[in-house]
Amino acid sequence: MIVAFSVTPLGVGEDVGEYVADAVRVVRESGLPHRTDAMFTSVEGEWDEVMDVVRRAVAAVEARAPRVSLVLKADIRPGVTDGLTSKVETVERYLSS
Predict the structure, then answer these.
(1) Could you tell me if 45 and 33 are in contact, meaning their C-beta atoms sit under 8 angstroms apart?
(2) Which helix (H) or strand (E) holds 72?
(3) How far, in whole angstroms, is CA 12 from its chain's centroid?
């Protein structure tokens, strides 16, 4: 499965990059395939391991912020691996033809 999620600290002002970095650090240390862009971090793996990473990423932000917002989108497709790369490669193939 692939989960795209965004963790946003609330009540800490406009500059939230330091808090978001705490969440991304958890994802990177997980060892799971992942990708971070300006809006979301995507992580790929089995249900329990991915949801554990999301839970720990939220907890990392929650430890420093009085309130946390979580947006999550999941692509649950058993038997598919390397979706983070293969989905993008498919789109790129169509764009180049």
Answers:
(1) yes
(2) strand 67-75
(3) 21
Q: Is the pTM of this model over 0.85?
A: yes
- Please tell me the distance from the alpha carbon of residue 73 to that of residue 13, in angstroms, as a whole number: 26
pLDDT in tens, 34-84: 999 999 999 999 999 999 999 999 999 999 999 999 999 999 988 888 888
Q: Which residues, at least 6 apart from 44, have a Cβ–Cβ distance to it below 8 Å?
A: 1, 2, 3, 32, 33, 34, 50, 81, 82, 83, 84
Q: Where are the alpha helices (DSSP H) in 1-97?
A: 17-30, 47-62, 83-95
Residue with tokens 């764009």: 95
Please tell me the distance from the alpha carbon of residue 39 to that of residue 27, in angstroms, as a whole number: 15
* Tokens read off for 42: 């995507």
Report yes or no: 28 and 96 within 8 Å, Cβ to Cβ.
no
